[in-house]
Structure formats: C-alpha cells, structure tokens
Amino acid sequence: MKRTPATKAAKGKASQAPRPLPKRRLKTAQDLRVFLADVTNRANRGELDPGLARCLGYLGQVLAGVISTSDLEKRLEAQAKEKTR
Hints:
Elements lengths: L28 H16 L5 H35 L1
C-alpha cells in the first residue's frame, strides 16, 4: 500500500486559503528586510508557493542592489556639493 503525505486537512485541521501578501511600499533596506523575512517565513510554513517565494527573493535581491546604489549616489552628490562650497 502506497502512503501519501498527510495534509493539514487530513490531520483534522480545517483547510484555510493562504493569506495574501500585504501590499507594501519597499523604499528602504529595512522595508525590504521585513518583507523578505515575511516571504521566507510563509514559504517555510507552506503558506506560499516555493516558486513565488523564489521569484520574490530574486526581485528583493535586485531591489536591494538598487537601494544600495541609490544611497551611494545620494552620498556622492552630497560630497560633491560640499566640495564646491
């Protein structure tokens, strides 16, 4: 007899639809950290499709690079203004 993995519904718990990800504005590295932690935790609990979690993680990595570059650009512009004064 072939055994199939038990699901949450089979364990006596009511089957629930996964909660949608909250809509957030990801403007800072801290915002991104909180978002990616939430995505990771939901994926670990089986509440989020692994493919979607992987995609969101990749996009988060790209956004982290953009935020870092933007912050560096702002600092360099501030330094340039200081030197011209």
